[in-house]
Predict the 3D structure of the following.
Amino acid sequence: MQRAMADKTALELLVHGVGGATPEKMLGDPRTVRITGDDTAAVYRRTDDADAEARPDDYRGKPVQEAYVWCGLTSGNGARALWLLLLPFMVANLAHWMRPSARGRARTVRLYGVLVRLLGLTLTVLLVAAACEVALDLTAWQCAGTPSCAEGRAWLGFLSPEVSGGGWWSQPGRRLALAALVPAALTGLLWYLSHRTWSAYESVEPYPHQAEQEEEPQLSGLSRPGFWYGRRFVARLRAAHTAAGLLTVAAAVATSAARHDRASGGPALLDVTGRVVEGVLVAGGLVVVYVVCRRGRKDQTLDEHTDRFAVTVLPLAALAVLALCLVYAGWDRPDWVSSGRLPGDQTFGAIALVQGLLVVVLTLVAHVLFRSDPLASTALRGLGGPCVALLACALGGVMSGGVAQRVGDWLDRGATPGEAEGPLPGPPVLLSWQAAVIPLLLVVVALLALLFAARTLRRRRLEQTRVERDYAEERPQESRTRKIAGARATAALTDSAPVLIGWVAAITFLLGAGALAGAWMSGEVPGVAAAGAPGFIGGAAETAQALGSWLIGFGFILFVTWGRRAYRDASARRTIGILWDVGTFWPRAAHPFAPPCYAERAVPDLTWRMATWTRQTGGRLVISGHSQGSVLAAAAAWQLSPAVRSRVGLLTYGSPLQRLYGRWFPSHFGPASLTALHREVDCWRNLHRPTDPIGGPISLAGECGPAVDHPPLKDPLAYGRTPAHPLPAPILGHSDYQADPAFNEERAELLHRLRPTTEPLGAVPTQPGPDSEENQGTPGLAPG
């Protein structure tokens, strides 16, 4: 019976790409049924195919199609639109996985991971420091301490000494202690979101590995047993970042009070207490840094252990230190009067300096790793990770400066913060210098965009000749040829992305260093510092600062507005979901507050489905992945045991496996890893078009014909009107590969090559438990 079923039954598992898809559209049938899964991610079949295994004669010569729909993992409910505010954390996490491939550099590889994790920690401190700047400095210290600012604001009047008549809350220390609840609540919210997504994503156990699977050469980290199971590591990192945020709030409150106690010559007890509190804060910061640096991801085994100290004790201890600092700051100090700014200049300057130094060291480390294994296809010669890490820091700075500038403008009642006629000193000087360089950065980006536009026009003229050659049997039409050539030239812009990102990162670093140096040397905002300069220079500086301040605030408002729109609008939420599809494929390795990794749910889903169906039926299986779905398909194939992997065919189309992932993530998708995957699966074919801006060739030779890649597909299918296409054929680009006849041909060839077998594939392997080598087993999924 199994032999008969194996001879006749074949399964095609469809995996959609970015943007999502419905099972009805993927299967071409309005009547579908869920086979396994839940409302977030599930496998569907046509209703008529639900019991296909019981009717093998009905499926002779054709596969049973299943659709794995995973778009709910990235663009489901409206709350996920708020993930947009976590974009800097996501970008920093990408930098971890962009490490160049290396040979014999284990310590250097670990150092690379430590540096990226430290950069992620500085982003958390920067975000919380920005919240402290708004709540403590601008609101509780400056505005509440200025009568003209506090008047007319009932919610702030009780904190003002003049408006409230010297009420209990009007002392600066108590105002700061009360305002500190806002950034502390923000830190708690980040902890809650991270914990909730951690329990839903990182806690999904992957398909258990067999002994033979664990002993095979690990040419790609994606095949390791614990790669898609970051439960222990993310919990440890979340606790450290939560403690760092709480300690940042505590430092913002306590250091101001301690500075006053030392300067005023008050009671010795308060002075000693302030020094002790500062020492505790320094010690707590060192413990947090140690926890972040000590341990990275452990992928070789399924890590089920729990670090109780790091996960539980560290955040609670930081919360206790914060409570101590609030009590210390709220102590009675009748002579304390708020004036000027809190020491935000030193805080933001120190964060910017540390981030710059970390990026420089990370660049050197990445260069050393690249030199050990110099793959020519690697983007930016291995410096993609440092460039992306720098852009993450810049994005965090823009968001922090934007909210500070907008709140400062709002509290100043229309005056420019920091100017002599304004009631408030305004945000830190460094933020104004950073705002002043933004217009220059935008000018440079615009020039680069013009350069790439000119290159695209030149490439389009070259492509016109190729289009005429590809459709030589057709009568040329200038407008049609130009349109097709334009689509090809625009698609080629993807290959120029490394140059653009490299230039933007280099210019951002130089302008950021200039802003930091200018703020420390002048101590003034650019417009004031240039007041004694010639008229043109001074006017240009003032204009740049004002324009940059407006742009940075407008950008932040636009960011929040987009997130709010996505919260209410499903179509906008799907657009943001595309961003997460690309950016959150990788596990959280550098920042625990980044949006969760959907692949930690999707890859185990696909692996379980392929392994259990193949084991129970012995039939043929082709996993068919489009765009990002091809990346998930490859990752799931890596997780299979060699016995199962050798009985699976892989069909990819519009695939970014080599064009994007192979160039930007060479340590996991480099030529050696893709070659090993091709060697271990039964067969692999890849379809691509010259008009596709995302997908491209895999560029691997193999047993399925002369190479993995099918020759580039024609797009459009017909140049003019033909009997088969009486209406103009559209330029499909990245979509609808199934419309090309080559798709069905390649799928049929894959199914024909796969040989059914009656050899037992073995029981579902047992899974290691926390206290033993193996547990009592894990049940498999039913095929339907």
